[in-house]
Amino acid sequence: xxxxxxxxxxxxxxxxxxxxxxxxxxxKIEPFNxxxxxxxxxxxxxxxxxxxxxxxxxxxGNKEFLQFLSIAKGSCGETRSQLYRVxxxxxxxxxILDNLLEKTKHLSKxxxxxxxxLRKSSYKGSKFK
Length: 129
Fold this sequence. Notes:
Blueprint: H1 11-27, H2 36-58, H3 62-88, H4 94-120
Helix pairs in contact: 1-2, 1-4, 2-3, 3-4
């Protein structure tokens, strides 16, 4: 694995950022954009995935990073659940739903794999140097 200097270097963060942008785009579609509480909740859960990856990375310790990755994975699941409601409420079609569900499932698996890697790693984080 290449040396990662910034959270922006992490593929999981890059994919979470892309997911957040895609979710934001669907929340701009009428009438979803007028369902303020649901729109904001959906945006927040998608943003939480990338934000928790970043925050955990910046803590500079693997145990804390794992905790934040777990939260990010949970937010990814929350986003996936909300996407079903978005579809059920008629705000998006099945083609968009299927695409976004695939992205959330893939990202969740990537986060899980990265968590497994960190658990097996002897490196404890840069704050312990």
